[in-house]
Design goal:
One of its GO terms (biological process) is regulation of autophagy. It is a multi-pass membrane protein. Helix content is 69%, strand content 0%. By secondary structure, it is mainly alpha-helical. Helix 1 runs antiparallel to helix 2, helix 2 packs antiparallel against helix 3 and helix 3 runs antiparallel to helix 4. It has seven helices and no strands.
Amino acid sequence: MLCCMPGVAFVPALLVSWSSAAFIISYVIAVLVGHVEPLVPYISDTGTKPPESGVFGFMINISALLAAITMYIRYLLIEKQNESSHFVRSSCNMFTLCIGWMGCTGMGIVATFQELAVPSVHDIGASVAFGSGVVYITLQSLISYKSCPRWNTYFVCRIRMAISVISCIAFILMIVFASKISMTKIDWTPAEKDYTYHFMSAICEWTVAFGFIFFFLTFIRDFQRFSLRISTEIHED
């Protein structure tokens, strides 16, 4: 079905489906083997112990690569549209791409360094991934508004901005609640100290993560109008 999509729409579609599967599969495995409680664990908690850690690390690294490719195609698409419309500076477009790639790097760090094995590095990677991701989708929302009405509808722009605002609020609340947790563990139970802070922070984390997924879902229609061509030139001496 992905191969039947016009243009390069299969790229964000693959990113969305693969990332969703990464979160869900690792969560299901972690719950079934009893490593986490079913009620809203941290995303990283579902990829800390074997066997789910291997699945989580592999699939999140692939997601980071797909996200980087999607962001680059989005950059090229805006550059092409900008040739005739001049709705955004090229430097702003490049800055947005760099912010997005920082988030992808953070995802790679999260996937490679498990939460309990190297917690400081893992936390840095998570902060970079979520923080850069929120900035990226916010900048993309603003760029989308600037490209209206020729390249985007106001309906799509409002959806993107709503996702950005919700993700930004959830990201801030996630940090606030997480800062009040006094211990690092993955097997939480409701009777424990700081469980409420953990629960609220985890909800915010899942909200931000799926906010990114739904945001990239809105790219599919834009990418349907865009195709990449590889040009090969042969020069004779």
